Amino acid sequence: MYVYIVPVKSFRCLKTLHFLNVHNEVFYVPQGLVSYSMPAEEIESVSLPVGWKSYISPEGRKYYVNTSTKGTTDVCICVCQLHGAMEMEESFDAEGSFDDVSCLSPQSPGSTSPARRQNKEKEIKETKITINCVTFPVSMSAPEQQLLKPSEWSYCDYFWADKRDPQGATVSGFEVLLQKQLKGKQMQKEMAEFIRERIKIEEEYAKNLSKLSMFPMAAQEEGTLGEAWAQLKKSLADEAEVHLKFSSKLQSEVEKPLLTFRGDNFKKDMKKYDHHIADLRKQLVSRYAAVEKARKALADRQKDLEVKTQQLEIKLSNKTEEDIKKARRKSTQAGDDLMRCVDLYNQGQSKWFEEMVTTSLELERLEVERVETIQQLLRQYTTLRHETDMFNQSTMEPVDQLLQSVDPAKDRELWVKEHKTGDLRPVDMDI
Amino acid sequence: MYVYIVPVKSFRCLKTLHFLNVHNEVFYVPQGLVSYSMPAEEIESVSLPVGWKSYISPEGRKYYVNTSTKGTTDVCICVCQLHGAMEMEESFDAEGSFDDVSCLSPQSPGSTSPARRQNKEKEIKETKITINCVTFPVSMSAPEQQLLKPSEWSYCDYFWADKRDPQGATVSGFEVLLQKQLKGKQMQKEMAEFIRERIKIEEEYAKNLSKLSMFPMAAQEEGTLGEAWAQLKKSLADEAEVHLKFSSKLQSEVEKPLLTFRGDNFKKDMKKYDHHIADLRKQLVSRYAAVEKARKALADRQKDLEVKTQQLEIKLSNKTEEDIKKARRKSTQAGDDLMRCVDLYNQGQSKWFEEMVTTSLELERLEVERVETIQQLLRQYTTLRHETDMFNQSTMEPVDQLLQSVDPAKDRELWVKEHKTGDLRPVDMDI
């Protein structure tokens, strides 16, 4: 396997190559990385980050492309399986930027000697990689990790690595989870606003119906027809009542709970979690620095011992065995220092690991609670709507009854009794 | 019976008297009225006009009072049953205005001579009265009139007499019926206006719901919860549709028919009837005038004959039998003229009578039709309201379904798949 840093101009360039970009566009390459290997199957099992897709080339080889960077100059680390630099060159078409390719492997591009390939295979045994001061396994020979909570798509299983946001800043997986919760609070606020707007509409409607019910149109209609008409007009006031009741319940049973079921403490709690986890990462950074410093110190001490031993052998200097013993002691000490630093680092990482699991599960629980609470409140909304329509229907009952009783004959009797002028009929005049 | 014209100051005055005011406050007294009688039972059967009530005095006598004129100086014709003027005087209390009482009877107030009472009883045989040139029966000895359409409170039975409106103008019974129909047209117009206002309210409501359904609140909610929320927002647009449909049907199935079911021809037809009946009354007025003229001419001729016959007997003049024959001939002629005039008058009255029956029955039919049509249209209104509430309910179904399907675990899976940063867990660093 060869490791290249390639600016990706167009995914069309990458026809026959196998690429893996583990952390979106840029794979942070820490000092000290020599090489790493990852077989194609492992590439599959680590699911591709957002925007990466896998394709089959005409030749039948699988390759992975970052589709979201088409046309940009992002750099990606390409892990080329079994391809030498020459084959890389051949694969790039004229639009490629092969000149920009630099190989991280000890061997420079162009070298394909079997001896080097053999050395490569030795280096392939490298099994871990530290990215942003967090140490992950890489080797296919390492026992495969089981998910902590299989089949649950749990937060504690999928947010270990950092990523880069569109501006290029580093964002921890935990940060992504936190942002999700804060966004959830924003969502409930916006839903409450929506309900508020509905309330306003209902109140306006009720006001209009109420006003209209008092207009004097056809108030002079009398009898059974007049009664039915009066009740019809009144029914608008009844409808207005129904809608006012609806809006009132919307406020108390939907809007208010949406606004208040995560109190102000919620944001404070989120900040607390944020700082706590961030602090643990910062500690990890400083402990990793200590490890690197100790490693360098050890290398220096070992080199010093080697030089001094060689000098003794060729009798280059008048260094005594005393000097060699001293050098050996310092070397041993440096080794102890390194062990201690690595220990502290591992403890720090474990601590962060535990907090990550605990806190991400809490965030997961909060999200389940949020979804269920909102589901509940929205069900309350539909219940109130059902109720309202039923109450509204019932306002028609008295109107229907009175319309049923409309009786032209009765109305005539009532009106004639009130307005008649005389029932004596004229008779012939006598002479 | 005595007939008095009494200014009525206070109904308290009229404790023990029986009054009948046949046409509200003023009973039009035509020339030639001598007296008329009406027994108490007949007073009952002609139902009291508006404002008139009957009371029982402490002595147990029934009396009728115009309660709406308390404190005014309306004049009424009082028919006092079996009370002489002296009893009238006794009955008025200090607040009365008995000085203003004038008796229409040949005997002046204060006179209670039996001889005069006997004359009164002779005059009581008067059986008809002509009011506003229409001749009505008054005597209790006349065969009682049966209603043309008993138990139906038909227009053709109760609008024979004229009345006075509040301004004092004469209004025919037919006019009252006509005004009722014109008012009915006004009623349907006002009802249509009311429906129009409802339509406007519905359109406003629909517009507001439709706008709100497109607001972007919580548009970023994803997964099953996001789907349910999106459907909830969409349901407002569905509700808007329902209300728009309602307003549209209100317009075509209620408002429009209310405006148009009596066409413009209606007012023309009413005018036609009005003029036709009024013309027949006018004709009656001129024919009545002819009768009065002929009656007077006959009286003159008769007087002339009488004088001439007397003169012959006392040999006062040298008039010959020839002159008497001439006078007798003229008298006979005048008698024939009178008969002819009375005949024409009676024909005219019969014609008017027939048209009154026909036309008032047509107006009655139109009123039944109006009431039934309006009943129908208002039932359509309530039907549309019922429909609307049901359609409105159904807009909640898809929302309920999606809320049912809200699944926090599924939403977590979807979100984690999209946003995860890496599932490789950290491992201890090697030395």
UniProtKB/TrEMBL annotation, chains A, B:
<feature type="domain" description="F-BAR">
    <location>
        <begin position="151"/>
        <end position="411"/>
    </location>
</feature>
<dbReference type="InterPro" id="IPR037957">
    <property type="entry name" value="GAS7_F-BAR"/>
</dbReference>
<feature type="domain" description="WW">
    <location>
        <begin position="46"/>
        <end position="73"/>
    </location>
</feature>
<protein>
    <submittedName>
        <fullName>Growth arrest-specific 7a</fullName>
    </submittedName>
</protein>
<dbReference type="Pfam" id="PF00611">
    <property type="entry name" value="FCH"/>
</dbReference>
<dbReference type="GO" id="GO:0048268">
    <property type="term" value="P:clathrin coat assembly"/>
</dbReference>
<dbReference type="GO" id="GO:0048812">
    <property type="term" value="P:neuron projection morphogenesis"/>
</dbReference>
<dbReference type="Pfam" id="PF00397">
    <property type="entry name" value="WW"/>
</dbReference>
<dbReference type="InterPro" id="IPR027267">
    <property type="entry name" value="AH/BAR_dom_sf"/>
</dbReference>
<dbReference type="InterPro" id="IPR031160">
    <property type="entry name" value="F_BAR_dom"/>
</dbReference>
<dbReference type="GO" id="GO:0005886">
    <property type="term" value="C:plasma membrane"/>
</dbReference>
<feature type="coiled-coil region">
    <location>
        <begin position="295"/>
        <end position="322"/>
    </location>
</feature>
<feature type="region of interest" description="Disordered">
    <location>
        <begin position="97"/>
        <end position="122"/>
    </location>
</feature>
<dbReference type="InterPro" id="IPR001060">
    <property type="entry name" value="FCH_dom"/>
</dbReference>
<keyword id="KW-0175">Coiled coil</keyword>
<dbReference type="InterPro" id="IPR001202">
    <property type="entry name" value="WW_dom"/>
</dbReference>
<dbReference type="GO" id="GO:0005905">
    <property type="term" value="C:clathrin-coated pit"/>
</dbReference>
<dbReference type="InterPro" id="IPR036020">
    <property type="entry name" value="WW_dom_sf"/>
</dbReference>
<dbReference type="GO" id="GO:0030136">
    <property type="term" value="C:clathrin-coated vesicle"/>
</dbReference>
<feature type="compositionally biased region" description="Polar residues">
    <location>
        <begin position="104"/>
        <end position="116"/>
    </location>
</feature>
<dbReference type="Pfam" id="PF16623">
    <property type="entry name" value="WW_FCH_linker"/>
</dbReference>
<dbReference type="GO" id="GO:0072583">
    <property type="term" value="P:clathrin-dependent endocytosis"/>
</dbReference>
